[in-house]
Amino acid sequence: MFEKIQEIWKGKTSKKEQGIYFGVIIVGYTIISLISQSLFPVKYSILDFKISAQGSITSNPDGHILWNIGMIVMGLLLVPHMRYLNDGLKNSSPRFAEAINVLSITACIGFSFVGLFPREYPWLHSIPAAIALYGFYFSLNMYLLLLIDQKKNERQTVWPKSWSFVLIFIPLNVVVIGNVLRSLLPSKLWISQIDPRIYSYPPWQWSFLISIFLTFLGIFLILPNKKNQVELKTA
Fold first, then answer.
1. How far apart are CA 144 and CA 215, in angstroms?
2. Contacts (Cβ under 8 Å, ≥6 apart) of 213
3. Is residue 235 part of a domain?
4. Handedness of CA 46, 52, 55, 60 (dihedral sign)
5. Would you say residue 233 has pLDDT above 50?
6. How far is CA 153 from CA 91, 92, 117, 156, in A?
7. Transmembrane residues, as ranges (predicted)?
8. Which residue has the higher pLDDT, 97 or 114?
9. pLDDT (0 to 100) of residue 146
10. Which structural domain, as residue segments, surrounds residue 73?
11. What confidence score (pLDDT) does residue 34 get?
12. What are the C-alpha distances in Å from 80 to residues 9, 145, 219?
């Protein structure tokens, strides 16, 4: 049992086991978020409230503890998944992969600190939140470079077409670019037929988080099974 825990922590599991592990994390976080939102004193909407409102002591007095604990645990549980991705992508450029690994694990720690320090502690909350979101954003885009490079070097491994790699990263970058454009767009240019809340930050923050996890899922699905990579190296 202890050996299996060590294997998971080091990111050395099989692709099937890692898929189950990552799925449990996402489902668990989703359930905790839904429960926390149900305990919100008013109807919670991603159009009105930022993500961290779920863990706010004043905004969510009944549900903040559950959500904050969930964030702390999720940040820690994501570390092995980052190590798994790093282990599968380090063949072409070990030093670059290690730099991404440090950045992504720092982002995981940032997630935990978001739960440790609710938004009632402004600087202690906002800085880790930025580290978490943008740490994942930059590490994911650097993973794209590793994916393409490793595909070129491992010609015997069955990889999807290169355009599919780029396709995975489109939603994440569209959200980031869209948020920048949103912040620069004068209110007089807003489309009146669209709910004005769409132009506020909360729905874009939620879109950012969701696209981060979808991109991590896409990378995981693209990566070949480590067993197949080992067989190719020893062949």
1. 10
2. 26
3. no
4. negative
5. no
6. 9, 7, 44, 9
7. 20-40, 65-84, 96-117, 123-144, 165-184, 204-223
8. 114
9. 86
10. 2-225
11. 96
12. 5, 21, 15
Kindly report, residue by residue over 175-230, the tens digit of the pLDDT.
999 999 888 887 777 777 788 888 889 999 999 999 999 999 998 988 877 654 44
Closest CA to 108 of 172, 22, 185, 43: 22
233 part of a folded domain = no
pLDDT tens-digit series, residues 7-27: 888 888 899 999 999 999 999
Is residue 67 one of the residues assigned to a domain? yes
As a three-state string, the secondary structure of the chain is: CHHHHHHHHCCCCCHHHHHHHHHHHHHHHHHHHHHHHHCCCCCCCCCCCCHHHHHCCCCCCCCHHHHHHHHHHHHHHHHHHHHHHHHHHCCCCHHHHHHHHHHHHHHHHHHHHHHHCCCCCHHHHHHHHHHHHHHHHHHHHHHHHHHHHHHHHCCCCCCCCHHHHHHHHHHHHHHHHHHHHHHHCCHHHCCCCCCHHHHCHHHHHHHHHHHHHHHHHHHHHHCCCHHHHHHHHHC
231 within domain boundaries: no
pLDDT at 155: 65
pLDDT, position 124: 94
pTM of the predicted structure, to 2 decimals: 0.88
Total of domains in the chain: 1
Sign of the torsion formed by the C-alpha atoms of 159, 163, 167 and 169: positive
CA–centroid distance for 202 within its chain:
17
Contact 112, 75 (CB under 8 A): yes
